[in-house]
Amino acid sequence: MTAHAVPRPRPRHRFRSLALPLTLLVGFVACAAGFIGYVLRPSWPTGAVVLDAPSIPVTVGGVLFNVPPAAIRRSVQRHPGEHERIDLAFVWPSLAPPPADAKASAAPLRTDAAEMLPPPPAADRVFVTIAGLGDVLPAVERLRTIYPRYFESEATAGPDGLGILPFRAATPYEGEDLIYLVENPEQFFARCTRVVGAGPGTCLAERSLDSAAITLRFSRDWLENWRSIAAGFERLITQLHPSKQDAH
């Protein structure tokens, strides 16, 4: 009889011995890449910041600001990083943060047209809110296209070249006046509540900086010296955002 050789399967020990080191090498490379990515990833410091710390970087609406912690009115906002909005207070006219033992306790400002808060509790404070614009039109666009729809009558003369236009009742701006520089409204304008009883009115002056809106809140009585208000606003924006090009 003729013997036929039956083929036998080759041993696989060699492949098994190579698979384990290869798997370990791939896992090591993946772990190393993850660690390097974590170390190099941009991040903000965490934790609360003391009041006397130097200015901290915050972003609002994608815009970078340098904010002194002592000026931040709400402790929950007193950290670097991204914010939906940030509420600040400064001493007028120095624009320095208030002393730590004299922090204003006013509630956060709502800047929507339907509601304005009572006057600031301290006569030497200006309150500033920075928030993302979102779907809200910039202040200058509202001046051009929205506010004129709601005026009640012709303008009357205000102090030092200002005009005063009252808004009609039953509108989003009921109880307010638009106060503006007659020669160039875009140079200076503010929405102000009217004086009721013994309390002074409150004014909101707004500027847009890229995709962020900056709102300054001050007493209506200060409009007698509105040029200082306008200059102080520009100085404050430069202080908070030194690399600004234009504020509208």
Report the C-alpha radius of gyration, rounded: 30 Å
What percentage of the residues does DSSP assign to strands (E)?
25-35%
Helical segment count: 3
Order of helices and strands: HEEEEEHEEEEEEH
Provide the spatial order of strands within the biggest beta sheet: 4-5-11-10-9-8-7-6
Instruction: Work out the number of β strands.
Output: 11
Q: Name the overall outline.
A: globular
Helical fraction: 10-25%
What about the largest sheet? 8 strands, antiparallel
Weakly predicted, low-confidence segments:
1-7, 37-44, 103-121
Number of domain units: 1
| C-alpha termini separation | 105 Å
Q: What does this 3D model show about the protein?
A:
Mean pLDDT is 80; it is low at 1-7, 37-44 and 103-121. The longest helix has 28 residues, at 13-40. The chain has three helices and eleven strands, in the order αβββββαββββββα. It has one domain. It is globular and about 80 Å long. The strands form two sheets. The protein has an eight-stranded antiparallel β-sheet with strand order 4-5-11-10-9-8-7-6. Strands 2-1-3 form a three-stranded mixed β-sheet, with no helix packed on it. A hairpin with a 2-residue loop joins β10 (202-209) and β11. It has helices at residues 13-40, 139-145, 226-240; strands at 56-60, 63-67, 81-83, 85-91, 125-132, 156-157, 162-166, 176-181, 189-193, 202-209, 212-219. 20% of the residues lie in helices and 25% in strands. By secondary structure, the chain is an alpha+beta fold.
